[in-house]
Amino acid sequence: QVQLVESGGGLVQAGGSLRLSCAASGRTFSRSAMGWFRQAPAKVREFVAAIEWSGITVYADSVKGRFTISRDNNKNTVYLQMNSLKPEDTAVYYCAGDSVGSRVSANSYSYWGQGTPVTVSL
To answer: DSSP characters for 73-95?
Structure first.
């Protein structure tokens, strides 16, 4: 059974950092596109970052220069390093796997984790 499990979320002050992890099991994702999305209360799920099997990355404008997506194929794990956090980054962050279409569209991903909450205080 394929599973994606996020970890690393929590409560931090503005300007702080967090590192999210997404551990995949059930199959290898070494040649699959992976992504991170987030959803704040009363808002739609939005794209954050994606990484191709080749290592090429793409970011939402709102996080560019502050967040970094990476992957360790030997561990079948994807990471999201979040620096210079702002209160508007507060959301539940979801790991998504195996995109077959637009990397910035949630509809293109086949697998999803349950999410890890991130709260950034002023």
So the answer is: TTTTEEEEEE-S--GGG-EEEEE
